[in-house]
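Loading example: each entry is read as two labelled lines plus one structure line.
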Amino acid sequence: MIKLKSAHIEEVRGIRKVDIDFQKGTFSISGPNGSGKSGVIDAIEFGLTGQIGRLTGRGTKGLSVAEHGPHVDKTKFPDAAFVELQVFLPGLNKSATILRKVSSPTKPKIVPADDDVKAALAEIAEHPEITLSRREILRFILVEPTKRSEEIQAILKLDEIGQTRGALNTAQNKLQTVQRTAMAQVQSSRDALLRHLQISTLRSEDLLEAVNKRRKLLGLPEIPELTADSKLDSGLSASINRPDFNKQSATRDLHALSDSAKSFPDLAKADADSILSDLAKLEADPALLAALQRHSFIQKGLELVDGPECPLCDKPWENEQHLRDHLNRKLAKSAEAQKLQEALLQKGTAIAQAGIRVIGLLGPVQKIAEAQGDTGFAQVLTIWKTDLDGLKISLTTVDGLTGLKDRLTTGWLATPGAFAKGLQDLTENVISKPDQTAALDAQTFLTTAQLRLSDYREAMRKNKAAEIAYATAKAAYDTYCVVLEEQLNALYDEVEKDFSAFYRSVNQDDESAFTAKLTPSEGKLEFEVNFYDRGLFPPAAYHSEGHQDGMGVCLYLALMKRLFGDRFTFALLDDVVMSVDAGHRYQFCKLLKTQFPNTQFIITTHDRLWAEQMKSAGLVTRKTSLSFHGWTVDTGPLVESDEEIWGEIDSSLAKGKVEVGAAALRHHLEYVSRLLADQLGAPIAFRADGNYELGELLPNVLKRMRELCGKASDAAQSWGSVADQEAATKRKTALSTSSGAVNVEQWAVNKAVHYNEWANFGKKDFEPVVAAFKDLLGCFRCEGCESWLYVTPRTNPESLRCACNKVGLNLKPKAK
Amino acid sequence: MATLQQQLAEKFLEKLAESKQVDTEKIEQLRLLLRDSKKVKADDLVKIFSLPAGGDVA
């Protein structure tokens, strides 16, 4: 993770040009709605990740970083829109600069271009969740359980885990199909062996009895025990050219095929009919058909995803994760289609197994036809076998089954027209042959038996290997699921504890016994919270919006703690605690300071009071906070600072835009008045909403400064300090003679009247107003360091000072 | 601190080894696959699970 040192932002979103010194510390940016705070967040997010969360996700169709990332006046010049961030990488103890242009968001220029620096920044780029806006809060708290599960899993990057689980499941299913096919092959070769041996069970004893009977007839030694090395035809001279044909066995093979052929029309017909019925259902329901087609299409697409470009339509996405999330959401929508797909493929496998058994019957007959010189029929059988072999592949996919619709209707086996006659002719031909001599019969019986035993053993070996592979895949998948569940339960348990503790600490005054329950189940994540010991309820059931906001932030912090651990050093909180009330905000500051002392939070708020509270709670300082007083499309955010304001006003007046200059002056006076009221301890009538008017602040600040200067003068006189007395008197005189001070009552800064009046001034009329206030505010600053004066200590102040100590007026007179 | 994915992969392989249902050669291959690829492919897993017991040396 990183800490942000500074940011230079140009022509991004609503910002023209801004430099901010973040000082690697928690930082607040305040300002009214539309003043450009979120633009800064967008720019930092863009600089770090190449993305802008506000332009992606739900409700952002038609928006993109490329088109809407640059300032509205620079959409045709995206090269002009860029962010340069100075960051510190605590894990590496290195500093780096990232320069990212909107025109090439995925290719930041990183200096130094060290591999470890690039890897650390690449990791950040994969974590857009470093930004939390109120929209994200609603995603955790108010969504339905299935959606919450998705959202939280996405934050925790659990989708990668889901991808691994899916791959393990697919591997398991594939190997199960292989194993079923191997089993069908075993059955087929076993049937052929039994048929040849004329035994009903494949017991060694029965097999050896049939074999040894022939061996005895040929004067060969009996085989006492069937082992893996046993050769049933051992002892037969290999040099003798004997026919590879045993009439009796051949007759049995022919009859077996002939008998089986009677049931060919009905073979696996129920499965074929069921497939046709499902296909008809699909045709009648275009939405289901589309979902199914999409399902396999998207599944294929997901497998092919390897970057931010969609492999299905070439559309470029913000990043690969967004694309994956999008495809996974689409997949989830077609659950019914997935169920149908599973049923279709199961029936397809059953037909494939039946096909293997038919191939097992055709094989021996094909050899007989070849041995008898019936090449025509042998060719028919060869083509048919090849066709059935190819059919097996089509039966394993939905697309394949759809393509087989006609064939499934007319008979999937597609028995060749020449089959029945060919089989009949071959059978008659074989039967009409003279019986073989007993010796030849015995010899060919043994050679055929050995061949079929070898086939059977090979099928068994393959089946065993397939069984082991499937068992391994199943064990791996089952183990992964068990471990996943254990880990997720532990994870949610920890998140639940952290979340509850964080929320209790923020709401310790009214919910000190708060608890929450996160319950994961079947892709859902139930989330319930205790409501004043009355039981567990969904968060939105009874808790106020403010409490829900608090919950959202606490859940976010708990998740980030779990995701990054001690590497959680940076987060952007964009106006997320706006409806949390004042008392709880102080506790929130305490939570951030105590639980996340090493995390730099960049916090924006439109609430001036909250910005002040962050300072008084010690979460930020004046140096680590920034206020925007307004925004215009031409200037971008207007920063509340004395250094820049007069230049901005002069610039507006030079362009003849008095209304812009008037608004800037008004905001600046409000800002400085609040600041000075606080720093000088001016007595202001308290307002619970903290929404003080300029008319309430500025006159009282002037009065307080006069009083302080008077006190300083008196104190200096009592101590006999002529220099201090002169300095105090000089400041008081300057204050009294300032035309701004003279006119402040006259201009009375009534928001409703004078603000608009200023805006209606001509340039020449307004320039004296600006000069008067510039002169007036100068009385409150140090001429050397230009900082605003302040009293210390805040209660019963003893001196009036500036930051550089050039101004240091004693307020305490000498005791008499 | 290991990522959740890394923690899960470690636990998974540890538990698989304890179960003795999968031989060590395959577990090692799985370890390499999970370490090297963020997106595990089913066909790569099929190849590993189909390895002859004890390795592919005949």
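Chain B touches chain A at residues 1, 3-5, 7-8, 11-12, 15-16, 19, 21-22, 26, 30, 34, 38-46, 49-50, 52-53 (CB under 8 Å).
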